[in-house]
Q: What sequence folds into this?
């Protein structure tokens, strides 16, 4: 028997969970559990900070896509390809291309036996806003946001030190908007 690999399936946007459920139901009805092993809609935890309070929400990492761990053969291909809401496999032409382990890791997707990715935080403030630092050496210090780095999940703010403005880099989670 061939080895199961991860494939990406394109769906109509908003149909990801329906496609997942329909594929799982069809696999069960046709007794193909040994060929289609797992179907996932990758989610990420997004933390939004508004008025100093954190709120977590689960959001789809890739709207319009579903990942499937399956053994590629005519039966499994047919079941997935002909599921309502599926527009096709991702790959050149009609030939599905499996994800490499490096691609799976770079996507930050948690697969069985993998380490969970760090949640993404969306900061509600903007450059020029005043923030108070909640922890660390600068605790209870108020400063003005000079730049926001979404990639590093931090802010650069100016704080007064020895009578002059000094830039300090602070994590999103360590500040509160004033």
A:
């Amino acid at each position: 028997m061939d080895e199961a690999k991860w494939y990406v399936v394109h769906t109509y946007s908003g149909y990801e969970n329906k496609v997942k459920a329909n594929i799982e139901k069809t696999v069960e009805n046709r007794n193909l559990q040994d060929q289609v092993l797992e179907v996932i809609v990758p989610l990420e935890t997004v933390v939004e900070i508004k008025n100093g309070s954190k709120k977590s929400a689960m959001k789809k990492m890739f709207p319009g896509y579903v990942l499937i761990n399956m053994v590629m053969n005519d039966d499994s291909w047919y079941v997935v390809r002909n599921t309502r809401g599926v527009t096709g496999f991702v790959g050149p032409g009609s030939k599905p291309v499996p994800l490499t382990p490096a691609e799976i890791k770079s996507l930050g997707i948690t697969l069985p036996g993998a380490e969970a990715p760090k949640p993404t935080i969306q900061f509600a403030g903007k450059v020029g806003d005043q923030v108070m630092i909640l922890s660390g050496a600068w605790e209870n210090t108020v400063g003005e946001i000079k730049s926001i780095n979404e990639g590093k999940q931090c802010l650069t703010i100016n704080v007064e030190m020895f009578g002059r403005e000094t830039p300090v880099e602070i994590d999103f989670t360590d500040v509160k908007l004033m």
Remarks:
- The two ends are 61 Å apart (CA to CA).
- The domain at 125-177 is CATH 2.30.30.30 (SH3 type barrels.).
- The longest strand covers residues 43-50.
